[in-house]
Amino acid sequence: MSRLTHLNQRGEASMVDVTGKDITDRSALAESRICMSAEAFELLSQGAHKKGDVLSVARIAGIQAAKKTSDLIPLCHPLALTKVALEFELQPHQHSVQITAFCRLAGRTGVEMEALTAASVAALTIYDMCKAVDPSMAIGPTRLLQKTGGKRGHWRGAGSDKT
After folding, report:
1. How far apart are CA 67 and CA 76, in angstroms?
2. Residue 76 annotated as binding?
C-alpha cells in the first residue's frame, strides 16, 4: 500500500475524506526567498520602484493566494483560514528578500499547502513587479519550516529556527 494519501483503494488520485478526523488547531510556517540584482534590491528596499510599494502588494497577493489554494492545487481541501500573515526580511548582503508565511485554522486538515502557496505567490509577485529592472531574479528555496496540529502534532523541519 502506498504512503501517498491522495490515492484511493484502486490507486487513483482522489481527494482525501477528512470527515472522520478531529477538529484541531492547526498552523504552518513556510518560507521562500527571492534573489535579485543590487539595482533591483535598492529600488525595492527604498520603496522607490515605479510600480509602488512592492512588499505591500506581495503581502496582499500572498494572503489572497493562501485563501485560494484549493483553486490552484488539485485535491486540496477548501479551508476557512483564521489567520494568514506574511513577513519580509530584507537581506542586503545577498540582495534578497526572505519571505515567511504563517497560516492557521481550527479544522480537520492541515494548512501546509496554504503557507507554501502564500510564500510562493509573494515571491512571484515581487518578481513580477521588479522584472523590468532584473529579469534574472531567482526564487527559492521554498520549503515548509514547521506545522502544528493533527495526528503528527508539532513538526519542525531540519534547520528551522523560526517559531
Report:
1. 12
2. yes
